[in-house]
Design a protein that fits this description.
The complex is a heterodimer.
Chain A: H1 2-27, H2 31-51, H3 55-79, H4 92-115, H5 131-140, H6 143-164
Chain B: H1 10-30, H2 34-59, H3 63-93
The chains are: A mainly alpha, B mainly alpha.
Amino acid sequence: MTQDHLQKYLFLVLGLFAVLSALMVVFTKNPVHSVLYLVLAFFAITGEYILLNAQFIAIVNIIVYAGAIMVLFLFVIMLLNLNKETEPHKNPYLKFAAVITSGLLLIVIVGSLKAADNAIATPYQGGKGLIENLAEVLFHQFLLPFEVSSILFLAAMVGAVMLGKKDIK
Amino acid sequence: MQQNIHGIPLDWFIILSTTLFCIGVMGVLFRRNAIIIFMSIELMLNATNLLLVAFSAYHGDAAGQVFVFFTMAVAAAEIAVGLAILVVMYRNTKSVDIDVLNRLKG
């Protein structure tokens, strides 16, 4: 019983952490600080994955998102020398409209989900997120998409290099 | 370790990921810096990932987590190409303000 309470508190603390750092990503002026707050949000989401007993996804989330993608963001920010607060002034009415719109979207989605009955919230069977179960599904059921994603990566790599070249003959 | 989800209702995960998604939407609408808009899109992708993992864990079906794996692969490719486009845009216009792209209207 106390373990259940501990899980709930962990969920609430991590969720609050994720939401606060996501808000700071949006509202911080300096892009470098935004990137660092986004890394914090990703770590909080990784904690939620561990609560869900999805260890493989948690590790991959840290390696891919907090490691690779955020380093790419920081690299581009440093390359373009954007690490200063040079946000041009936006119409305050537009900012007001943005906050109102997203708040309304949140209310609408949560309200419609309240009405739905979640009949699928069945008791949980453990260990689905462990790496051997995932490999079983990935390399039997989803083998073709897995191979096709390599073509996607090749296309993205060629596209990025082509875009980055200074002058294409 | 087996019954560790029982304490948390599924609704809580749904509400958390909805909140994160809406913060991402707000970031896209709120900021003009294209890099911050990219980060908000990443936040939205992560919110949907969290929802997929939650449903997968509560349903006892590993396919949802494989979907998250594919989403991460596609997101990585998207970010590589998107940041390359951003660098080209900065090289041509000397800013990453998305309002500069108004001229695409022709």
